[in-house]
Amino acid sequence: xxxxxxxxxxxxxxxxxxxxxxxxxxxxxxxxxxxxxxxxxxxxxxxxxxxxxxxxxxxxxxxxxxx
Length: 67
What we know:
Layout: H1 2-9, H2 14-59
Keywords: Coiled coil
């Protein structure tokens, strides 16, 4: 993305500036969607960790080999 924006750094062309804006906005939207996806995955993992923690606490005092 940086390489696509470099021509805009020193350009007075309005079309180039508009393209840079659209590129940055699209990249921000992509990152936002990825962050939301990752947060959902993290939340699901947290649920599994909590369930495993409860399970392990319930096993305390039991023989770990099934006895």
